[in-house]
Amino acid sequence: MAKNKIIVNGETYIDLTGDNVTAANVDSGVTFHLPDGSIGTGTSTKDADTSDATLLDSEAAENKTFYKDGVKRTGTAPVRGGVTGTITTRDQEYTIPIGLHDGSGKVSISQTERNKIIPANIKDGVVILGQTGDYKGEGVTAQAKTATPTFSQQTIIPDTGYDYLSQVVIAAIPVTETPNSAGGTTVTIG
What we know:
Elements: E1 5-8, E2 11-15, E3 31-33, E4 39-41, E5 65-68, E6 71-74, E7 79-81, E8 84-87, E9 100-101, E10 106-109, H1 111-114, E11 127-128, E12 131-132, E13 142-147, E14 164-170, E15 175-179, E16 185-189
């Protein structure tokens, strides 16, 4: 019969009666005395209750282990480090790849496109990506012309060195009237 309380000459040397230790509270394989004085062996592997864990395999770094629902699991999320990308068109989007990033990655506008975003290429007063435009347009040269109507189709365009026609004056159709031998008038058009 196991002894759980020892008193010598009225003095208590051992009293296990109030202990609440159980095998689950003691490391696996370690022996101890139970409250009734009998010998017990610990069963605890110090596992935590992981039943409420919410981490998914795809959220843990690939080849790294963790516990969930009491089961050792391995992560599948790729470790990306510093991912970089460039944008080369106005409507282009950069999709951030799934995985774990170290925070050093960058997405930027390509150097070719940045070289185009200068004040001289932006309308005066318009701000694009922090650059205020100062382009006021190029000087243009207008030309005025005079044309005489004919019975054939004519195409009237500016001469070389001119950007547009400011006006085209079409002369009146020349008409001459002369008396004829029959006592009438001969009308000559053109």
